[in-house]
Amino acid sequence: MATPKSSSSLIPPDPAKVMVIRDVTSNITTLSVPFARFGHIKVGGRATLVKLQTGNVAVFSPVALTPDVKTKVKSLGPIKYIVAPDIEHHIFITPWAAEYPEAEIIGVEGLPEKREGNADTKGTKFHHVFSSSNKLDLHISPEFDEEFASEFFHSHTNKELVFLHKPSRTLIEADLLFNLPATEQYSKSGVDPRSGLLTKLFGGLMNIRGDMLWQKRFLWYLAAGKDRQGFAESAKRIKQWDYDRIIPCHGDVIETGGKSILDQATAWFTEGKH
Question: Which residue windows are coiled coil (predicted)?
Answer without folding.
Answer: none
